[in-house]
Amino acid sequence: MPNQLNALWEQYGRLSANGFPSEAGLAARQCILDWLGCTLAGSTEPLAQILRAEFAAENGPATVIGAGQRTSAKTAALINGAAGHALDFDDTNLVGGFHATGVVLPAALALAEEMGASGAELLCAYIAGVEVCARLRVVIGEEHYRQGWHITSTLGIFGAVAASGRLMGLDTEQFARATGLAASQVGGVHANFGTMAKPFHAGFAAERGLLSARLAQRGFTANPDAFERAFSQMSGEIDWSRIDSLADMFVVTDTLLKRFASGHGTQATILATRALMSDGLVADQIIRAEVRTNDLVLSSAYGVRVPRTGLEAKFSLPGVCALTLLGHDLTAPGSFSDENVSGPAFMDLIRRIELVGDPKFAHGEGEIAVETRSGWVRQRFPHTRDSGTVESRVKLVNEKFQALAAPVVGVNAARLRELVSNLDELPNVNEICTLVRTSVTCVG
Predict the structure, then answer these.
(1) How confident is the model at residue 444 (pLDDT cuts 50, 70, 90)?
(2) What is the per-residue pLDDT for 383?
(3) N or C: which end of the chain has fewer CB within 10 A?
């Protein structure tokens, strides 16, 4: 096993409840609550209904969120992982730049329920999974993403391995074999953004990570060097020194809790558009507009010029700009509907909004430039880390969870918030799982 990967496991594989600062514990509980809300809301989406139907005959100990269904832990990780990412409203770890929670937590929760693990054990496993896979994301650099791989899936699977391994008590050799096995199951491509396959990436990575840990515990063999070999081929140079600066940091604290139900790369565009609207800009004043950003966006996952569906609009900078200008509240997942992107008002406006690559902008930077009858107005992209500090975002998390969860579980939403806030004191996760599968809606 490579010394570096071995060192990560030694640091996080046996993480205890007193092994991380209180801020990291608070951030982790916020991410868990946020993911539960996103998953409950996502459980009503067609992709979740399709997956539940596929596994309807399966029985087991693990909860399928938003439905009165229980399956094996692996299948629950798959379905819940996909449902949690269905709306693209789940959090983004800003150190790794990907949806770590969306893969790590569905695996950890399903396994914790099956094993009867305590809330504290789940919390430790979740943090361990995020810390490991976020660092591996940094180690591989940017070329992997540029080549079109969906890093939430390709790196998240190792977070699911780590979280599962922490709960199962894998030793170093078992973890090494589990990561080797996971390396042979890496998948997920940008080409499927804007379809049901994108959230499916998160689900199968959660499932495969859990399975890899289980098989390794049983003695299944795999090359412990497989991670480095695989990502050297897919990414180029692997540089472990990139994580030296993270040595004393718990990266779970550096998380963006999304305000809008769309891809991370669209959040700044929405904020810039809203800023222009607060200055008086309205859609019928626009002669033409340009969303100007880094050249790489034109060929990236966010380069959709004219979205054809609500799902595609979640990854279209011109699309979110147009929807916002037309008055749609993109904090509400229902705003990304096929009807909203096929209507005449949207089609008329989107034809006047160009996506322009501009080398003067660094990755993530940009501006919206709008020509009106009175001249040009411009708004630079604000920084997207707008959900505040760990301490200041408690209100945001609670309000977002209530809005997403209450339509599915009704008054149980308040009890779920209480349980997650005291997660480290729970003897098991049974009540949480009971409440999240007790839906007051008919979701199939």
Answers:
(1) very low
(2) 75
(3) C
- CA dihedral angle for residue 302, residue 307, residue 312, residue 314, rounded to 10 degrees: 60
Q: Which amino acid is at 91?
A: D
DSSP 8-state assignment for residue 57: T
DSSP code, position 441? S
Check: CB of residue 175 under 8 Å from CB of residue 165: yes
Taking the C-alpha atoms of 218, 223, 229 and 234 in order, what is their torsion angle to the nearest 10 degrees? Answer: -40
Tokens of 315: 């990854």
For the chain, what percentages of helix, strand and coil (3-state, to nearest 5) are there? 55, 10, 35
pTM, entire model: 0.94
CB-based contact 256:383 (threshold 8 Å): no
* SS3 at position 193: coil
Alpha helices (H) along 21-171: 22-42, 46-54, 73-85, 101-115, 119-140, 143-146, 151-154, 156-168
Q: Which two tokens stand for residue 6?
A: 């071995």
Whole-number pLDDT of residue 387: 62
283-315 pLDDT, tens per residue? 999 999 999 998 777 666 677 889 999 999 999
Q: Is 72 helix (H, G, I), strand (E, B) or coil?
A: coil
CA distances (Å), 154 to each of 55, 90, 129, in order?
24, 17, 14
Domains and CATH numbers, the chain: 3-258+388-436 (1.10.4100.10), 264-380 (3.30.1330.120)
Average pLDDT of the residues of the chain: 93
DSSP 8-state symbol, 295: G
Query: What are the beta bridge partners of residue 321?
Result: none
DSSP state, residue 246: G
- Strands 62-64 and 69-71 come out as antiparallel
The sign one gets for the Cα dihedral 81, 84, 86, 91 is negative
Rounded CA-CA distance 400/408 in Å is 14
CA atoms within 13 Å, Cβ hemisphere of 356:
16
Q: How many CB atoms sit inside 10 A of residue 344's CB? A: 7
For residue 166 the two structure tokens come to 């922490």
DSSP 322-377: HHHHTT--TTSGGGS-HHHHHSHHHHHHHTTEEEEE-TTSPTT-EEEEEEETTEEE
C-alpha 290/C-alpha 369 separation (Å) is 5
pLDDT tens-digit readout, 51-80:
999 999 999 999 999 999 999 999 999 999
